[in-house]
Amino acid sequence: MELLGHFTVLLGFFFLMEGVAWFTHKYIMHGFGWILHKSHHEPRKGAFELNDLYGFIFAIPSVWLIVAGSAEMDWRFFAGLGIALYGLAYFLVHDVFVHQRVKWLKRTQVPYFRAMRKTHHLHHSVHTKEHAQAFGFLFVLPKFYRRYSRG
Fold this sequence. Notes:
Layout: H1 2-32, H2 34-37, H3 53-70, H4 75-98, H5 111-123, H6 142-148
């Protein structure tokens, strides 16, 4: 039963992070945090951009929870692991798949992935902090799925 509880915490924090990421993206990155995020809406010069610092910022609570919970292997460890796994998924989907920072998975016939990529490109069609839409990362809203899932 304890294993099920830990797995539930891990998954709960993984899915919670999509909401945290959406909120942070909409209200912080496209708000007072635009100073870092702006680099992500401009053509990249080099391998890195200021926006990459957000990955380190998001890693802080993950590392803290993993370290704090590691002695007891309590819920904090699994919460931190859930956040870390979300970070890995974010990197693979956002940086590798959508933005092709690593040239993998250039073409996909999977409707969900096609919708994910096109929805994020819709977000990047706005180059200012105002008027952007589609702030999520891993979950495509049904209205965007219907619009972009077809080839």
